[in-house]
Write a structure and sequence with these properties.
The structure is a single chain. With 78 residues, this protein is mainly alpha-helical. The chain folds into two domains: 47 residues, Arc Repressor Mutant; 30 residues, no CATH class. It has three helices and no strands. The longest helix has 14 residues. The chain is elongated. The chain starts with 13 loop residues before the first helix and ends in a 13-residue tail after the last helix. It comes from Acinetobacter baylyi. Pfam families: Arc. InterPro entries: Arc_DNA-bd_dom, Arc_rbn_hlx_hlx, Ribbon_hlx_hlx.
Length: 78
């Protein structure tokens, strides 16, 4: 990110600011980088990287999205 990127000003409770500061230190990020990272994660959390999931994990994710269908995985016959 550069200084040319747009800025936003927000108010947060002091406890939340302290938590974000602590997380930034733990993750070796600046406060700004930690906030940006967490915002990006929260906005993309609905999108699942399907290539990184096992078949079982993918089926669980599909089950959650489509009303809790109970699906069992069985080995395919080749």
């Amino acid at each position: 990110m550069s200084r040319a990127d747009p800025q936003i000003n927000i108010r947060v409770p002091i406890e939340l600011k302290k938590e974000i500061e602590h997380a930034a230190i733990e993750n070796s990020r600046s406060l700004n980088a930690e906030v940006v990272h967490r915002l990006q994660e929260s906005l993309s959390s609905g999108r699942v990287n399907k290539s990184a999931l096992s078949t079982e994990e993918l089926m669980e994710e599909l089950s959650k999205r489509f009303g809790g269908l109970n699906v069992k995985i069985t080995p395919s016959e080749e």
